[in-house]
Write a structure and sequence with these properties.
globular, 10 strands, five-stranded mixed sheet, D-Maltodextrin-Binding Protein, domain 2, alpha/beta
């Protein structure tokens, strides 16, 4: 049997995620042949547009699995995205930096109320976390006038340089090189009050081949577990692959908490949904089965009481 025939026998799964350090475990599992050993071929797609772009890709069934921000996918599932959260991917919160251009006179968070936020897409993390940040600062955001769509990081750099937007929120460590170079000014930080990344599967994969989905999750969980216990090797890889200073890679890795459990903690999910509703990111409290897929998710009729 030749290589082409062997490849044709494998089950192809299209997976998307941001081109950032969090997804190193997926890449290593793929490069080291761990998916292939299970008869799986992963077609990885970098999605620099972030969670909003991945939501669109899932809706168009261009992806079978995506690694998205928790808040963004929940909001999109509730308005028709044909997908479910399979498990959390990263339990630790995401540390968002709050940035402005060094060309302007904004030097503190107290000065950003009424300014325009650069966001990649609506319902993306950069969009939704602006409401979390505003709540933390006791500020208000006008959803009709205070956002400028920029698509991705490069779009944000252009918008801030041209003063079309004045505020931008993005993952702290991936954005730090722009602070170090003098392009962005770091005004402050904002952490997600929930596990930051979730593994999301399109309903068609869930319904047609749940065993395949389970195998994919098992492989990546093992890769996460292995990576977390190789601190020196992992931080060097992160620094090299993602152009970060080694000290920054070490700091990020020390804060990272991968999730290795396939079960979804329903009590935790209810807490997240309540928080999202209080922020007006979602307008109702859904049944857990609307948002999550897990063979081990137990029904609790009194969970909202």
């Amino acid at each position: 049997m030749d290589l082409l025939e062997k490849k044709s026998m494998k089950k192809v799964v299209r997976v998307g995620g941001v081109p950032e350090h969090f997804n190193l475990a997926w890449h290593l599992a793929n490069e080291n042949g761990h998916f292939s050993e299970e008869g799986i071929e992963i077609e990885w797609q970098d999605v620099p547009g972030g969670t909003g772009a991945m939501c669109n890709a899932l809706r168009n069934h261009e992806l079978d699995i995506a690694i998205t921000l928790t808040e963004g996918i929940i909001a999109d599932i509730m308005v028709g995205n044909p997908s479910k959260i399979v498990q959390f991917y990263v339990n630790s919160p995401l540390m968002w930096g709050i940035y402005t251009s060094t060309k302007n006179d904004i030097h503190s968070l107290s000065q950003i109320e009424g300014k325009k936020y650069a966001i990649s897409r609506y319902k993306s993390g950069s969009h939704l976390m602006s409401f979390v940040n505003a709540r933390n600062l006791d500020q208000t955001i006008n959803p009709e006038t205070d956002f400028v769509l920029v698509g991705n990081m490069e779009g944000a750099r252009k918008a801030l340089a041209a003063d079309e937007a004045q505020v931008f929120m993005w993952e702290k460590y991936m954005t730090k090189p722009l602070v170090d170079s003098g392009e962005f000014r770091l005004l402050g930080e904002c952490t997600t009050p929930w596990p930051c990344f979730a593994v999301v599967a399109h309903n068609q994969l869930i319904e047609s081949d749940p065993d395949l989905l389970k195998k994919v999750i098992e492989v990546v969980n093992k890769s996460c577990y292995s990576l977390k216990f190789k601190e020196e090797e992992a931080t060097q890889m992160v620094a090299w692959r993602y152009q970060l200073k080694l000290a920054d890679a070490k700091q990020w890795f020390s804060e990272l908490e991968y999730n290795y459990a396939e079960e979804i903690d329903e009590i935790q999910m209810v807490s997240i949904l309540n928080d999202l509703k209080s922020l007006h990111i979602i307008d109702r409290l859904p049944a857990l089965e609307e948002i999550c897929y897990s063979p081990n998710l137990l029904e609790h009729p009194d969970i909202w009481q």
